[in-house]
Amino acid sequence: MSLSLPEVKRVAWLARIEITEAEAEAAQGQLNGIFKLIEQMLSVDTEGIAPMAHCEDVVQRLREDRVTESDQHLLYQSIAPQVEGGLYLVPKVIE
């Protein structure tokens, strides 16, 4: 696939980008180069190759899923200016 100069100008117009004739020609070359690279990548046979999440074969170290801290909300709320029903009360700021 390749873009013509009018197509590049239309894309620029749709994106609300002001573009000169020289810039449109330069963009056309760059975009067509990108499309050629994509076509080249799509032509590679990837049958039988498993998708990878990372380029290297690494494994994330996992920790045991357990609670490591005690519940201290009563301690934290004891120093709060106003608490009601286990909730912090704050002044109304939007009227």
Question: What topology does this entry show?
Answer:
Blueprint lengths: L4 H10 L6 H22 L30 H6 L4 E2 L2 E2 L7
Antiparallel strand pairs: 1-2
Which radius of gyration do the C-alpha atoms yield?
29 Å
Number of helices: 3
Helical content class: 40-55%
The secondary-structure class comes to: mainly alpha
CATH class of the domain at 5-42 equals: Mainly Alpha
Describe this structure in words.
The protein has 95 residues and is mainly alpha-helical. Helices cover 40% and strands 4% of the residues. Helix 1 packs across helix 2 (21-42). The longest helix is centred in the first third of the chain and has 22 residues, at 21-42. The mean pLDDT is 91.
Keywords:
3 helices; two-stranded antiparallel ribbon; mainly alpha; single chain; 95 residues; Histone, subunit A
In short:
The chain is mainly alpha-helical and 95 residues long. Helices cover 40% and strands 4% of the residues.
